[in-house]
Design brief:
Elements: E1 4-7, E2 14-17, E3 23-27, H1 30-36, E4 41-47, E5 51-54, E6 58-63, E7 69-74, E8 81-86, E9 92-95, E10 110-112, H2 137-144
Parallel strand pairs: 3-10
Antiparallel strand pairs: 1-2, 2-5, 3-4, 4-9, 6-7, 7-8, 8-9
């Protein structure tokens, strides 16, 4: 694989990545559950410089448990969530797996905030799982797992 594409539900927002995901994981934090409408979100992580975007995103900013500001980008036309940014990792971007043209691009490698997963959203026992977000974020979590 050499990059990937994705976008929103209506097609007003599109993106292309020239890089493969550096990491992919499931997050069961309260905000991810609420913003996804289900038990978790699955995010890819890649360098922001590798992602080109067409169309307009609107952002909703909210502090995470860590105090870092999470900016969730969504299409102002259809409301579909497309990507997030984290103030602690300004050089990275977090496309949502739900926005991928080819969902097989997402290969989850870890689970964070597993302690907040609802009982009906079963955790994959083959993935490293963390009760909360480990110090240092997802890359540090995978290194610890």
């Amino acid at each position: 694989m050499a990059g990937f594409t994705g976008g929103c539900l209506c097609g007003a927002v599109r993106y292309t990545s020239t890089a493969d995901p550096a990491l992919c994981g499931h997050c069961h934090c309260d905000d991810c559950r609420r913003s996804s409408g289900t038990g978790h979100c699955t995010h890819l992580i890649l360098p922001a410089a590798a992602l080109s975007l067409t169309g307009e995103l609107r952002f909703y900013d909210r502090p995470a448990d860590s105090g870092n500001l999470i900016s969730r980008g969504f299409c102002p036309v259809c409301g579909a969530a497309v990507l997030s940014r984290n103030s602690a990792m300004p050089d990275m971007v977090f496309p949502r797996a739900s926005s991928l043209d080819d969902p097989e691009v997402a290969k989850p490698q870890m689970v964070v905030y597993a302690s907040r997963a609802p009982s009906w959203d079963r955790l994959d026992p083959s993935l490293p799982s963390f009760a909360a977000m480990p110090e240092g974020g997802p890359p540090a979590a995978l290194a610890q797992g």
